[in-house]
C-alpha cells in the first residue's frame, strides 16, 4: 500500500505517490492524488433563532411595584409572577385583612398536588439526618449572603477575605431549642472597602424590590407545620416559629428568594462558579424543606420570584456601571489572592475534590438542580407547550456566555427550558421553566443559523468554554474567531458544522450531530472522543485547516465519516491521550470514511516520527520512531 512521509511537501508527496502507483500496478491503485477544490460548506439557514419577549406586562418594566403596599396580581408584578399558584390554591380574599385571617383562609383547588406538597415535607423532616438538621439550622439563622458563599469552593476563602463578611452564628448553640438566635453579622460584607466594596454593593443592589412579603400576604398559604403535625421542624428552630400566621405565610419562601438573589449576583460577578453558586442557592431552598419551615411549592415560588427580581435589577440602567465594576473588581481581587490569571482562574476554581468542595462534581450538581426545580411533581397539564423567555432574562447569562449576543442567550434559555405542565411553573413570562444550570451549559437545540465568535485574547470564557447539553435541532453551527469550544453531549442537530476559525473540540462520540463537518483554513477540529467520533455526513478539510486526533486505546479519538472525506490539505496532528503509548512500527487508524479524496499537506505526531498511510476509505499513521 502506498505511503507518504509526514515531512514531505505536497509537491514531493505527489511525485512519490505517482512513482509508487506505477510500481504497484492498477490492481492495487489507491487514490492519493491531491485535490484543489472541495464541496461547499453546509448551507447556512436563511434565519437566526428569534426569541421575542411575551406580549404581556414584563416584570423588568414593573419591578418597582413589588412593594408591601401593593399586594394583588393586578398591581404587583411580583405577585403576578406567581399567579399560576391560583390554579392550586385560592385565597378567600384578594385583599389582606390581617385582623380576621386565621392562617387557613383559602381553598385547595388541586388536592393531589397539595397533598404531595405537604407529604414531601413530612417525609423529608422525618427522615433527615443530624447533619441535614444542622445545615438547615445554619441556613435558617445565618444571613443568606454569608451562608451561600461556600458555593465558591476553592475561591471561598478569597471571597470572604475580600468581602469581609461576618456571621455570629457558626454552630447550633446548646440552648438553641429554647433561645432564638439572630445573625449579628454584616451579610454580604463591607461595602466600604476599595478593593471589594463594589462587589458587596452589587450584591446588595440585586436585592432591590426583592421582598416576598407582598406575595406571602396575597396568597396566604400556610407553612407546612401548620398543615400537618407530622411535619417535624428542626428542634433548634422551634423558637423561630412565628405565633402569628397572618404575617407568616409560607408561599413563597423568603429564604429561598434571598439565597437565589445572592447566589445569582455572586454567579454574575464570578461566572467561573456560576453553576456551583446557583446550585448552592437551591440547596439552601431545599434546606428550608428539611427544616420543616417550607414546602416544595414555597421553594419553587421563591426561585421564580428571585429570577424575576434579579433580572429587573441587572437590567436597571442605574446598575450598569456597578455590575461592570463588580465583575472587574471581583476578578482582580480573587486572582491576586489565588495567584491566578484570567487564563488559569477557571482551573483553580474547579481544582477542589468533593471532600473539600461539595459542588465539585458537575453531573451531581446538574441532577440536584433539576430535581429541585420540580421536587418530583408530575405534570398536571400538557407538556409540549412552547417555552417563552422573560424580557431581559438573557442578562443573567451575559458574563457566563459573553461571546453570545443577547438574542443568542435568549435562544439558549428557550432551548434549555423545562417542559410545560408542572404545577406552578407555567407562568406567562416564563420564569418557572427557566433552567439556568442547563443554560450555563450552552444551547439545547440549534434552530436556524448559530454563529459563535470567540476571542482567545480576551481570556476567560471568551477563550474557552464547554457546552455539555445534548443539542438537537435542524440548525447549523458555525465557529469563528480564535477560541476553543468543547462539545460533550450526545448531539443530534442536523444542519451541519462549519469551523471557520478557532478550535471545535469533540469530547463525545456524538458531539458533532448528524450533518456535514467543514473545517476551514483557519479552523481546527479536535477529536478527544472516548471512542470513534461520528460524522454523520461528509467531512471536508481545507488547506491550512487542522484535524487534531487525541489518539488513545481502542481507537479513542479516531474519526468515522459516514460520507466522503475530502482533504484539500492542511494538517493532521496526532497526540496521544490517557497515557496511551504507541508502539514503533505499528500503524494506527485515525480516520475512516465511505470514501476518501485528497491528502494532508502536513502530518505531525507528537514525540514521534510518523508516516501517513492512505487507503480509498481511510487514513492511518505508522509510528516510525
From TrEMBL:
The lineage of its organism: Bacteria, Pseudomonadati, Pseudomonadota, Betaproteobacteria, Burkholderiales. InterPro entries: Acid_Pase_classA_bac (IPR001011), Autotrns_rpt (IPR013425), PAP2/HPO (IPR000326), PAP2/HPO_sf (IPR036938). It comes from the Bacteria. CDD domains: PAP2_acid_phosphatase (cd03397). Residues 196-314 form the Phosphatidic acid phosphatase type 2/haloperoxidase domain. Keywords: Signal. SMART domains: acidPPc. This is Phosphatase PAP2 family protein. It holds the Pfam family PATR. Residues 1-29 form the signal peptide.
